[in-house]
Amino acid sequence: xxxxxxxRTQGVHRRRGRARRQWSAILTILPALAMPxxxxxxxxxxxxxxxxxxxxxxxxxxxxxxxxxxxPGDQWRVDFGLNGPFFRSRIDREAQWVESHESDGTxxxxxxxxxxxxxxxxxxxxxxxxxxxxTLKSNGIRENVxxxxxxxxxxxxxxxxxxxxxxxxxxATTDDGRMIWHARGNEYLxxxxxxxxxxxxxxxxxxxxxxxDFTPVEFIFPGEPDFLTTVPRYDCxxxxxxxxPAAPSTAEATPVxxxxxxxxxx
Length: 266
Hints:
Layout: H1 2-6, H2 10-15, H3 23-29, E1 42-43, E2 48-56, E3 60-67, E4 75-81, E5 84-91, E6 97-102, E7 107-110, H4 120-126, E8 128-137, E9 142-158, E10 161-173, E11 179-190, E12 195-197, E13 200-204, E14 209-213, E15 216-220, H5 237-242, E16 254-255
Parallel strand pairs: 1-16
Antiparallel strand pairs: 2-3, 2-15, 3-4, 4-5, 5-6, 6-7, 7-8, 8-9, 9-10, 10-11, 11-12, 11-13, 13-14
């Protein structure tokens, strides 16, 4: 669930308590995290180096980077909406979700010794990987997560990048077995980058499944125009139409806010 405690569950973080709202409307109410909404360029934390910017559907742009102090294979991602950064996460070499930082300051950590750790290697080798683990938030909430990823056998080329298509289903429950959320759908993976990329799916927070779509549209690499941009580009029309006017900004760079985690991994 790697990608999606980073990719899939970004939907949880952005929809919990707002299940009846449209995704685009949700983006307009995400806090700006004490930074101007119109800031232009992401600055990685000290000791870190960015390698990829991804523009997706549903008015989101993600910047990916690695940090020298982390374990080999670890990588970070920061997601931006119209009002700035709202989600930051780290995965390991197996694309296993390790930690995330939400816009309200909540930190979510993988609990040690999961019963069935997620394995990117197993998925590539066998075509299917199951996982079962628990996460603990800084507010004391525990989620028990169980599900699978499966290769569909299809390859998709998006903006010149060839990706492998997957399907997934995952459910999170409380310690007494009550459902917290349930997600299913399709994602993409890049075997060399060792990461998942979100796709189209459905999320149920207890009131029925609702659609979500964070399919990649554009990949931007170092040296290319708009690398490290913080301004989402696609499907933002509804957000712009319903959002209040943004304050003017002269900012040129967007550092990672303190509320989205430490400057660099310990």
